[in-house]
């Protein structure tokens, strides 16, 4: 059940990251200036993506999120298909999410500095914390079943 929850949350975050990436390029390339998530000057995805911290060279940070969520989806599916039966996937998920949390914290920190927040980014942060908690809780409680050959 926890694997399905991780897949579901990762899929939501994946679609969110794809939308944000497309939106980021629309802002930079086509000078779009309004999104459905632009509520005011404080809560504005457009405002966040207009800042340099939202970009790594020419790539928006949401592109990295697309990669991170795909990694999580692949690890979880392979575990569910018993392709990684000797592999403790919750530990791998936890490690990936800890690194992603560190990167995400950098983005949130910069949003605080400029006093502008992307609601869709914040939604992904909540999803990130939930999956990290699920993974940590499974490691801590050692309720991981490993299929032996």
Characteristic terms for this protein:
149 residues, mainly alpha, de novo design (two linked rop proteins), two-stranded antiparallel ribbon, 69% helix, 3% strand, elongated
Report on this structure.
There is one protein chain. With 149 residues, the chain is an all-alpha fold. It has a single domain (2-18, 39-141), classed as de novo design (two linked rop proteins) (Up-down Bundle), CATH 1.20.1440. Helix content is 69%, strand content 3%. It is built from 5 helices and 2 strands; from the N terminus they run H-H-E-E-H-H-H. The protein has helices at residues 2-30, 45-49, 61-80, 89-114, 119-141; strands at residues 55-56, 59-60. The chain has a two-stranded antiparallel ribbon. A hairpin with a 2-residue loop joins strand 1 (55-56) and strand 2. Helix 1 packs antiparallel against helix 3, helix 1 (2-30) runs antiparallel to helix 5 (119-141) and helix 4 (89-114) packs antiparallel against helix 5 (119-141).
């Amino acid at each position: 059940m926890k694997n399905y929850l991780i897949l579901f949350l990762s899929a939501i975050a994946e679609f969110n990251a794809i939308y944000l990436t497309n939106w980021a390029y629309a802002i930079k390339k086509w000078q779009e200036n309004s999104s459905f998530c632009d509520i005011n000057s404080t809560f504005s995805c457009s405002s966040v993506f207009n800042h340099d911290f939202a970009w790594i060279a020419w790539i928006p940070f949401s592109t990295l999120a697309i990669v991170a969520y795909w990694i999580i989806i692949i690890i979880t599916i392979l575990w569910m298909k018993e392709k990684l039966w000797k592999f403790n996937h919750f530990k791998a998920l936890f490690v990936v999410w800890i690194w992603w949390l560190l990167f995400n914290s950098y983005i949130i920190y910069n949003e605080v500095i400029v006093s502008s927040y992307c609601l869709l980014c914040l939604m992904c942060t909540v999803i990130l914390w939930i999956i990290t908690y699920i993974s940590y809780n499974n490691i801590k409680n050692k309720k991981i079943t490993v299929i032996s050959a």
